[in-house]
Amino acid sequence: MPKEYRIIDSTLREGEQTPGVSFTIVQKKNILNRLARIGVAEAEIGIASPLIGNLDTIVDYCRTNLPSLNISLWSRCKEGDIKYAAKLKPDILSLSIPVSDLHLKAKFNKTREWAKNKLSDSINFARELGLRVSVGFEDATRADIEFITELATVASKHGAERIRLADTVGISSPKKMSNLVRSVKTISSKCEIAVHTHNDFGMATANAVAALESGATWADATVLGLGERSGCARLEELAVYLTMQTKYCKMSIQYLKELSTYVASIALLSIERGRPIVGNDIFTCETGLHLHGLKKNVKTYEPYPPESVGAERRFIFGAKSGCQAMKF
Length: 328
What we know:
Layout: E1 6-9, H1 25-38, E2 42-47, H2 55-65, E3 70-76, H3 79-88, E4 92-98, H4 101-108, H5 112-128, E5 133-138, H6 145-157, E6 162-167, H7 174-187, E7 192-197, H8 204-213, E8 218-221, H9 235-245, H10 256-266, E9 284-285, H11 288-296, E10 314-315, H12 322-325
Parallel strand pairs: 1-2, 1-8, 2-3, 3-4, 4-5, 5-6, 6-7, 7-8, 9-10
């Protein structure tokens, strides 16, 4: 069991890939300020490419103003991108390689042997340039497990510090994710394990938690679950669950609602009133049975105190309340 669970926030990378969402430099700085205040361990601030503007500005801002926040960049296994990342000097570079036969063939018309050679060459090149390296296995949940373990062995042998398993199209279940993490961890005991989970079947947060409980140290998340298609594991859900329900994570979760509201406003999104953690009505009650229990002891129908996440308890007396509720 790890000493602590850590979250990589990818709002500025994966989150900005949400259709119609784009953050200004000022907005990115404001998000990073709030992430640091909450206690996120690492922020993935973008894609390492000379075609992506203003990355140097964000790196400089973090170094000057947010020294406690580790920053990382996502990168293709391309020499030009890795060289560019080396100039920016992130705390860690996350090299991405496709690992499913579908992705290898359809995207690149390449073989498994190509992937192994490309991964080892890219890790070596990045480390020669002075970079700490994480490797991301794209589409890991649709890949052959034997091939994944081969690549994990390559990554460990060549000095990668972390292996990130991506459920790229969100098809995993908690049980499958647990088995995948355990398999890779057995092979690569020297590398920390991370997961990047998507929400296509509504299980991104559950899969992230399952991975952590099965030996992973890191889990990706984005504010409000922003990201491609149905998005990713939601930072607010993951942070509160890990802080409230485990002893391996302690974050300042009282600031999550402010961050979520801010991101919703700049992304032009609405937050549903019953949205876990940040919805305005999550501690509003009208049902008589629940009102009766809350009167006796609020813990009967509340998983955690409302004020711990910046919410407030509200009672509504209506058709579902009953006579007993009127005795409040």
